[in-house]
């Protein structure tokens, strides 16, 4: 029996993909880029991902036949930060099959997107959703779904207990953001999970990064920037030492007060804070954590705001690095009397049904023919296919080799 395609809407993407897309279309529309799919834990796959090649090819054919609908674009255009000319661009946009290729190397599935960045950057989220769903379709059983519901109910009860506990009350409330699209078990499971969360925790979970589900479920779409946005500026001809400042400045000019959460770990928190001076600290609402010890990171952020003479209570720290509900509640207890917090939980909500989740990414690796890199604050999360450039980047920013 044939199955429905994994994706039925081009809005089935994370909001930060659209916001980065708009900014780069306006400021650097001629940039050429290369993105590469990587599975970081191939041992977790129930079978070699190379077996999915034919199915992935068929799903990409379907993806490239989709276009944004008039209703979707009308809804998107009502978001204050989305510009009319970007909506016009999306009105005629279609993914180009020639810009993405699929092959296998032994048991590895290799997917690469290469071409004009404004035509290939959107492939990332659909590719991850496609590979995940095709993999987990082979493991999908009624018992797996029931286990997922049981685990979700336990998380909801834990959050409800915390909300009702006077001892857990803090100056700023606990806010949960659903970030699970990229590594979800399936599209229908993400919808069921998110409908359940929104119904049972209406004061806690009101936002999702999934733009399609935000539209169809009446939730707030949430997201600003990802690593690829800042990494792009490593290949745009600005002085390498200044690429973070150039990226932040363009963001400020594009959004002029909206979408004010900056990502800190492309080079690492210390190197980021060295560039995040009073000017940027006043213009951005807060910071997002995505690698390294979250408590150490948060304390560094608060110390930085204090050194700049800014009241941390007017800022927000968003935590989004592989969080569990337990970790989120612990971090809220630690920080939420001093600063507004937010917790983006992804895989632990969208793919906690028993089978081991895949740790898959599709990352930017080259811009205008030049390598780009992410160093991060977690050893092992560095990403670059050019060891020489990675070493040079570390040297420019004074990052130790072991970081």
Automatic annotation (TrEMBL):
<comment type="pathway">
    <text>Cofactor biosynthesis; NAD(+) biosynthesis; nicotinate D-ribonucleotide from nicotinate: step 1/1.</text>
</comment>
<feature type="domain" description="Nicotinate/nicotinamide phosphoribosyltransferase">
    <location>
        <begin position="174"/>
        <end position="399"/>
    </location>
</feature>
<dbReference type="InterPro" id="IPR007229">
    <property type="entry name" value="Nic_PRibTrfase-Fam"/>
</dbReference>
<dbReference type="GO" id="GO:0034355">
    <property type="term" value="P:NAD+ biosynthetic process via the salvage pathway"/>
</dbReference>
<dbReference type="InterPro" id="IPR036068">
    <property type="entry name" value="Nicotinate_pribotase-like_C"/>
</dbReference>
<feature type="modified residue" description="Phosphohistidine; by autocatalysis">
    <location>
        <position position="227"/>
    </location>
</feature>
<dbReference type="GO" id="GO:0004516">
    <property type="term" value="F:nicotinate phosphoribosyltransferase activity"/>
</dbReference>
<keyword id="KW-0436">Ligase</keyword>
<keyword id="KW-0662">Pyridine nucleotide biosynthesis</keyword>
<keyword id="KW-0328">Glycosyltransferase</keyword>
<protein>
    <recommendedName>
        <fullName>Nicotinate phosphoribosyltransferase</fullName>
        <ecNumber>6.3.4.21</ecNumber>
    </recommendedName>
</protein>
<feature type="domain" description="Nicotinate phosphoribosyltransferase N-terminal">
    <location>
        <begin position="11"/>
        <end position="132"/>
    </location>
</feature>
<dbReference type="GO" id="GO:0005829">
    <property type="term" value="C:cytosol"/>
</dbReference>
<dbReference type="InterPro" id="IPR006406">
    <property type="entry name" value="Nic_PRibTrfase"/>
</dbReference>
<dbReference type="Pfam" id="PF04095">
    <property type="entry name" value="NAPRTase"/>
</dbReference>
<dbReference type="InterPro" id="IPR041525">
    <property type="entry name" value="N/Namide_PRibTrfase"/>
</dbReference>
<comment type="function">
    <text>Catalyzes the synthesis of beta-nicotinate D-ribonucleotide from nicotinate and 5-phospho-D-ribose 1-phosphate at the expense of ATP.</text>
</comment>
<dbReference type="InterPro" id="IPR040727">
    <property type="entry name" value="NAPRTase_N"/>
</dbReference>
<dbReference type="Pfam" id="PF17767">
    <property type="entry name" value="NAPRTase_N"/>
</dbReference>
<keyword id="KW-0808">Transferase</keyword>
<keyword id="KW-0597">Phosphoprotein</keyword>
<dbReference type="GO" id="GO:0016757">
    <property type="term" value="F:glycosyltransferase activity"/>
</dbReference>
<comment type="similarity">
    <text>Belongs to the NAPRTase family.</text>
</comment>
């Amino acid at each position: 029996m044939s199955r429905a395609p994994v994706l039925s809407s081009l809005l089935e993407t994370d909001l930060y993909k659209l916001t980065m897309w708009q900014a780069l279309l306006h400021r650097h529309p001629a940039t050429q880029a290369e993105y590469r799919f990587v599975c970081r834990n191939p041992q977790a796959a129930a079978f070699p991902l190379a077996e999915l090649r034919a199915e992935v090819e068929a799903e990409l054919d379907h993806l490239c036949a989709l276009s944004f609908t008039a209703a979707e674009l009308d809804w998107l255009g009502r978001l204050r930060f989305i510009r009319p000319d970007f909506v016009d661009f999306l009105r005629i946009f279609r993914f180009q099959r020639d810009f993405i290729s699929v092959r296998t190397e032994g048991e590895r599935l290799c997917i690469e997107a290469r071409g004009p960045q404004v035509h290939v950057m959107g492939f990332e989220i659909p590719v991850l959703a496609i590979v995940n769903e095709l993999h987990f379709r082979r493991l999908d059983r009624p018992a797996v779904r029931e286990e997922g519901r049981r685990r979700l109910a336990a998380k909801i009860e834990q959050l409800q207990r915390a909300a009702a506990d006077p001892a857990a009350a803090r100056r700023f409330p606990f806010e949960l953001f659903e970030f699970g699209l990229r590594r979800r078990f399936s599209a229908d499971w993400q919808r069921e999970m998110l409908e359940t969360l929104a119904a049972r925790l209406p004061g806690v979970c009101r936002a999702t990064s999934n733009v399609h589900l935000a539209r169809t479920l009446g939730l707030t779409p949430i997201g600003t920037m990802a690593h690829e946005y800042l990494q792009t500026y490593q290949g745009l001809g600005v002085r390498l030492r200044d690429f973070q400042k150039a990226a932040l400045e363009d963001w400020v000019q594009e959004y002029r007060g909206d979408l004010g959460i900056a990502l800190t770990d492309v080079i690492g928190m210390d190197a980021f804070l060295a560039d995040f001076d009073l000017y940027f600290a006043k213009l951005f609402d807060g910071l997002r954590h995505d690698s390294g010890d979250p408590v150490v990171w948060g304390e560094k952020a608060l110390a930085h705001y204090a050194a700049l003479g800014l009241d941390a209570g007017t800022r927000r720290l968003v935590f989004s690095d592989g969080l569990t509900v337990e970790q989120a509640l612990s971090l809220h207890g630690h920080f939420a009397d001093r600063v507004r917090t937010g917790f983006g939980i992804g895989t632990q909500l969208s793919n906690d049904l028993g089978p081991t989740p895949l740790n898959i990414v599709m990352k930017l690796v080259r811009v205008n023919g030049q390598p780009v890199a992410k160093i991060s604050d977690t050893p092992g999360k560095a990403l670059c296919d050019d060891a020489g450039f990675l070493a040079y980047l570390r040297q420019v920013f004074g990052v130790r080799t072991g970081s």
